[in-house]
């Protein structure tokens, strides 16, 4: 959550308007299969007990309660430690009563941050094998490249992405600023479009370059970092509602919207605001 952080006193100085972006990949007419997914990065937040979760709820039941409120989980925890296949099957079984629920796991740091996409085939195969146990509940996984993985490593990235199975649905999050230089950005969006890989949009106050609003598939993953319910949170959500409704009219099929808060105890009010703003999408 430190990525793009600014003190709240600076927020009123930021231009939060969304850029036009390139959505030319969309067919131009609404899809009957459109789905808006809304969730958080983790379900195990003790700060939510007594607000989002009932008082005295046991930690072992956090996910069961989470399923009642959201239709997807970003599942950041697997970035740090890949679970056993048996554990994945348990989570998938819990989600079965909610047939529209999706898991969008974050690719292991062994692959992205330790191996930096080199000599990572065995680790990738293992990750895919374990995560596939989610079955029909598996949404697109996502790669978060490290802050110092710059565009000089383009060839490494291309070689790795080309090696992925064609049926492995995934998105990529870039953090180093030079990926967003116009020439490099065109090059990477062309590559991702050719490979049918999504380009994550991260909305943080201190890094407006990563709020690019360009699409490389008909599915998009938006990572929204709120600021403890500062008035700009709602303004930014409203801008995203309008952008998503525009994409919906043009034929986007899936939108995954992850809500984060710098302070976890601010999440309850934040998700209530999001439900109000996105009420026309949460159907």
Automatic annotation (TrEMBL):
* Domain of life assignment: Bacteria
| Pfam families xrefs | DUF72 (PF01904)
Known SUPFAM superfamilies for this protein?
TM1631-like
Listed PANTHER family: DUF72 DOMAIN-CONTAINING PROTEIN (PTHR30348:SF4), UNCHARACTERIZED PROTEIN YECE (PTHR30348)
Name of protein: DUF72 domain-containing protein
Organism of origin is Paradesertivirga mongoliensis
